[in-house]
Design brief:
Blueprint lengths: L25 H15 L6 E7 L5 E7 L2 E2 L3 E7 L3 H8 L2 E8 L4 E11 L2 H10 L2 H9 L8 H14 L11 E15 L7 E7 L5 E5 L3
Antiparallel strand pairs: 1-2, 1-5, 3-4, 4-7, 5-6, 6-7, 7-8, 8-9
Length: about 210
């Protein structure tokens, strides 16, 4: 690469994030920020980085889509036999990170992952486009495979299920991250960013504090 990427930078110009002006419930604040992101960010405002850890304590991250916002959790759907599913099975602690560059905002969320009820997974699966349902069934996610085999499996299932409803695979479904820590990052000029954090206390109350940028 010939370009000097160390010189790439921009100054953030957006509103202040002040303790006195935000809800004292972190989920209310998150929902407000998500609504603004959906209005302001043209591409995948519900995209989030999911980080998990394997049995050797090596971290792994990938982008998934937030599909449901429960009372105190964040739901996405995937193949339970994927790498992420296997990692969650051995260590269900995880981290989510949203980045909305148009708003100069990030939200980092830490907590524990649990499978959602089977009926919830089946209901969501039934709402997906049929091609997406077939792809989820045909793809052995995270397994080594050549492109021709994958496309052949997709074509075969498409023909087999052409006149049928696609059942939700038993190894496919949702996870809900139950949050115990949320950090709201607001970009500010001269790198003096605002970082307001909510930590869940033993008494189920949220402790609000500020971190240095």
């Amino acid at each position: 690469m010939n370009q000097d990427i160390s010189a790439l930078r921009r100054d953030y110009q957006f509103q202040d994030l002040l303790e006195s002006e935000i809800p004292q419930d972190p989920f209310t604040l998150f929902d407000h920020w998500l609504e603004q992101a959906i209005e302001s960010c043209p591409y995948d405002p519900t995209a989030m980085t999911l980080s998990t850890v394997d049995p050797q304590h090596a971290p792994h991250s990938r982008i998934v889509l937030l599909k449901q916002r429960q009372e105190s959790g964040f739901v996405f759907f995937t193949n339970y036999d994927s790498d992420k599913g296997k990692e969650i099975a051995t260590n269900n602690k995880a981290c989510l990170n949203f980045f909305w560059p148009e708003l100069s905002r990030q939200v980092r969320i830490e907590g524990t992952l649990h499978k959602v009820e089977r009926t919830a997974s089946e209901t969501y699966f039934a709402s997906r486009p049929k091609d997406s349902q077939i792809a989820a069934t045909a793809s052995p996610q995270s397994k080594t495979i050549d492109r021709e085999t994958l496309h052949s499996q997709m074509a075969s299932l498409t023909q087999t299920l052409a006149e049928q409803d696609v059942p939700c695979p038993k190894n496919w479904g949702g996870y809900e991250l139950k949050a115990n820590y949320l950090e709201f990052w607001q970009g500010r000029p001269s790198r003096l960013h605002d970082r307001l954090c909510f930590q869940l206390q033993a008494d189920t109350n949220w402790h609000l504090f500020r971190r240095a940028p």
